[in-house]
Here is the input.
Amino acid sequence: MSQQERVSWVSLVVIAFISVWYFAYVLSLPGDSHLFGPGMAVFALNLIITAIFAGIASEVILRWVQKRAGGDPRRRERPDERDRFIALRAGRNAYVVLFASVAIVLGLIPMIQFMRSIPMRAGPALRDTVLMRMLAGPLDPPLLAQWLLLALVLADVCKYVTRIVSYRRGY
Amino acid sequence: MATEVRNHIRRLRFERGELTQQQLADAVGATRQTIIAIEAGHYAPSLELAFRIARAFDKGIEEVFSDGSPR
Here is the structure.
């Protein structure tokens, strides 16, 4: 396995862990909670510190794995033309996902407005959370930011998955 | 239409006294994984890299690479 592929795997795991943690917390918040309040600031600080430590830990692990694989951990394996082609393909796929996701979010705004104009009775099981507000409105800017953040995460995941598939299946 | 690019790198390495993939990679400025991918036919190198590989074996490019179509 090339060092570039290992980096892609580690990046994918880190971004999946951080984003699942973030969205699991944010989406379960009560719908009327302030997304930029002090509670959110503490959570965001914890998240940033964890992300920094995850970055440092992954770098140490990658060097250790490279050493075990017989390479010189002091010598960084420079990407060659195949790595650059794979990075270009991954970037192109990520942009397609990002563009499509943003288009879906933009289409979601009038759809939610339309759905809200239809009188519906909310069942007792329908809890008022950030997730429900994102799906059923009213969609204010902080909630819209969550959708756009999700689009960015999806694009990044697509980038690393494309890289891994390209290295595995050949390119 | 994609053209299949065949190569004789494995045989040429053998003829060079089992030149390792890492040694070839270092000689042409690529990674070992790229040499493995080229040898296995999973990656068609750029013309520039193909020339560098041919030069590493002191061969012409057509002696190292060929397309899969019958002549």
